[in-house]
Each structure stands twice: as structure tokens, then as C-alpha cells.
Amino acid sequence: MGRWSALIPIVVLISTATPGLRGAESVWSGLVIAENIAQPKPIPPELTRIEGSLKKFFGYNQFQVIGQSQKTLKTGQEDWLATSKFFGLHVDARGENDLGYVLNLKLYKEKELLLETDAKLSKRSPLVIKGPQVGSGQLLLVLIVE
Amino acid sequence: MKTFEEKWTAWLDGQLSGRELAEFEASLPDKAAAEAEKTEATKLRKLLKSEIGVQTLNNAEFFSHQLRERIARESGGASRVSGVRRMESSTRWTVPRLLWTSAASIAVFLACTVLVMRDKSGSEESQYLTQILNARVDPVVSPNATVSIFEVKQDRVTVLWTEGLQTLPADYAAK
Q: Where are chain B's structural domains?
């Protein structure tokens, strides 16, 4: 027993240090309108993690989620849709590996395909897609593995 | 009081003189035989000196050092501390040298580790970033649209940047 108990910390250490999969994970997908407003609202909690990058890179001070979806991936082959009144983001997961998911993304304006892309979404690296300009703001598509 | 043998040796070496010499020679039973023996001994001494001589040591310092070491070991009476000091001084790997060598080895090891880890973290960094495999914009709807890819190191954010997409009215920002 004493000899085996000595192995427990080693096993724990190895399991925590391995950057592989640790069960089902969820992907947050959001349609975000970025604008410059005199009195900006606080950033939604889903975007807090990348707030600095969003403000610095896109130059807007307010980010509002107009559509979102939270999908738990079990097989890595799921697909889902994040929609707002006029836009739809269709995400089709086409497999996963230790580092993340292979996704096919399609942005629709109503039924019109505006943009399509394939990406390897890393579990440690969010994806932001700059969409069309909407009024004085900018549509952004954000995908984050949580 | 010298014995006869001592006086005999001294007489052969020519070290007796005066009264002592006279008394010794008077005590000899056969002075002629003794003189003949003395002459032979003198010849032998001269021969040995001329033929053998004194052997010179080429590494006298090392020899004497070894000799002192051996004496010190065999005497065993010396204190342990002084013995240790002698051992230290006799070897090239002294304690301070060992310490310095160890410290230098650790420093070299750490430097190499830092360099390797830096390279590895750089490659891992890009490995863990989201990658855009391809991107397409509808050429009919947005004929002048272009796409670019950026990586924001700050939060490890990958950005697909589009330009020239059709601008839409503010109504499209509705939830």
C-alpha cells in the first residue's frame, strides 16, 4: 500500500500536465456588435477573457452579443447555429484532436452566405472573425472553447 | 669505553691517533697481518668509491613526497584532520574545486534548459493558436472583399480580418 500510495502524486502530476483531452468541452459561439459609444456598457462575461485584445485590435469600446450558442462537444462531430435577427453563424465540427477542433464556419445574412471558413479552433486560443460593417458598428464572430 | 671491534673499525678508517693508536697497535697480536688487512680495506674503499659512486635521482622531489606520504600513512599517529588535509592537497579534486565545478555545471545546464524551453515554448505557442485553414467570401455579394489572418499574442487570439464586405444598415444589429 505504501509503495502504491507514493505513485498517486506522480499520476496526478502527469495527468494535469498532459495537454490532452479531459472530457467533453463546450464551445461558445457569439455574434457580437462592436461600437464606439459615449457611455459603453460593460463587456459581456463571455468576452471578458479577450476584452483587451478586442478593444486594442478593433478599436471599439462597446461589445454587445446579439446572438450566441453554447455547445458541448462530445464526439467532435456536432454542428450548431448561433443566430440573431438577421445573421446566422453555422458551425460544423469535423473532428477533434488534442489541440482542438476542426470547424467549418458559415456566416449567413438571412439566407445569403456572406463568408465561409475552415479553422482549427484551439482550446487555448479564441477565434474572432471580422464580419461586415453594420451601421456605425462592426459585426464580429467569436468562438471560444470553455 | 670502546670495544675492540669499534677500535678496529676506527683503526681501519684511520681515525685513531695518539695514545689510543699506540695502545691499540700494541694490543694487536699480529700487526703485520693487521696492516695487510688495513691496506686491503683501503683499496676496497677506493674501488667502491670510484666504481659505484652515488646514484642521482632524476625526480627527487616526487620520490621524497611519496616517501613522506607513505610515512604519514604508516605512522597512523597523525590526527585525522591533518591526514585529510594531506589527502586534499595530494589530489587535484579539492572540495572548493568540486564546488566550483558543480556550480559551473549547474549554470551550464540551466542555460541550456532555458534556451531549449524558449525554443520549445515558441513552437508550442504557435501549435496552440487557432489556425485558419481557408476562408472564402461570396464574390457576387462582395466582389472586392479580401481576407487576412492575424494573431494577437496578448490573449492568443486568432483574427480573421475581412475587408470590403457589403456594409449593412444599423437595423441588422438587432438581436
A: 4-51, 94-128, 129-173
How many H-runs (helices) and E-runs (strands) does chain A carry?
3, 8
* Chain A residues whose beta carbon lies within 8 Å of the beta carbon of residue B143: none
Alpha carbon of A57: minimum distance to chain B alpha carbons (Å) = 8
Contact A139/B159, CB-based, under 8 Å?
no
- DSSP letters spanning A38-104: SSPPPPPGGGGGGHHHHHHHH--SEEEEEEEEEEEESSS--EEEEE-SSEEEEEEEEEE-SSEEEEE
**Shortest Cα distance from A7 to chain B (angstroms)?**
27
- How many CB atoms within 10 Å of residue A126? 27
- The verdict on a CB contact (< 8 Å) between B165 and A117 is no
CB atoms within 10 A of CB B118: 9
- For A121, the 3-state DSSP assignment is strand
Q: For strand B146-152 and strand B157-163, is the pairing parallel, antiparallel, or unpaired?
A: antiparallel
The answer for residues whose C-beta is within 8 angstroms of residue A103's C-beta and 6 or more apart is A91, A92, A93, A94, A118, A119, A120, A121, A143
pLDDT (tens digit per residue) in A19-59 = 444 467 899 999 999 999 999 999 999 999 999 999 999 99
Q: Where are the domains of chain A?
A: 24-145
Which is nearest to A124 in space by CA: A8, A19, A17? Answer: A19
Strand partners, A65: A32
Interface confidence, given as ipTM, is 0.82
Q: With beta carbons less than 8 A apart as the criterion, state whether B152 and A117 touch.
A: no
Task: Show which residues on chain B lie within 8 Å of chain A, measured between beta carbons.
Answer: 127-138, 141-142, 147, 150, 152, 154-162, 165-175
Question: B78 near B72, Cβ under 8 Å?
Answer: yes
How confident is the model over B123-170, as pLDDT tens digits?
A: 666 778 899 999 999 888 888 889 999 888 878 899 999 999 989 999
